[in-house]
Amino acid sequence: MTDDHKSYTVWWDQPNGVVRTDWLRHAVCTLPVAHQVTADIRGLGQGRVLSLVDLRPLKSIDRESRQYFMGDHSAYRAVALVADAPVSRMIANFFLGMFSQAIPVRMFAADDAAIDWLQQQP
Distance from the CA of 55 to the CA of which of 10, 79, 109, 120 falls in 20 to 30 A? Predict the structure, then answer.
C-alpha cells in the first residue's frame, strides 16, 4: 500500500510524546489496513507507544480488524480513542468492550483530554 492510497496517516507527535493515527474522511478499515497501521506505528521506531486514534472521520472498521487490534498489544502502552459522533462512538465502544484490560484504553470527545490522559499512563 503506497502512501498515496492510504486511508490514514500515522505520525509521531513529538511535543506530546504520542503516536497519532488520523483517519481520512469516510475511511474503511479492513484487515490489511489494520496490519499496515500497526506496521507504520512500529516503523516509527518509538517502541511501545502511547497512541491517540482519531476515529471521528472513520466510516467503519470490520470485525477482523477490530479483533486484530485487540489481539496485538505489543506496539501499544495505552490507547486513547477520540470519538464525538454516534458512528465513531459506536466504533470506540467496540474496542472498549473487547479490550479485556490488557492495556489501558479510553474514549474521549477531544484531543486535549486524550493527550492529558495518555501522558499519565506508565
Answer: 120
| CA-based R_g, the chain, Å | 13
Q: Are strands 49-54 and 58-61 parallel, antiparallel or unpaired?
A: unpaired
Spatial CA neighbour of 57 closest among 79, 82, 31: 82
Whose grid coordinates read 490488557? 102
Task: Report d(CA 95, CA 19) in Å as an integer.
Answer: 18
Q: What is the pTM of this model?
A: 0.84
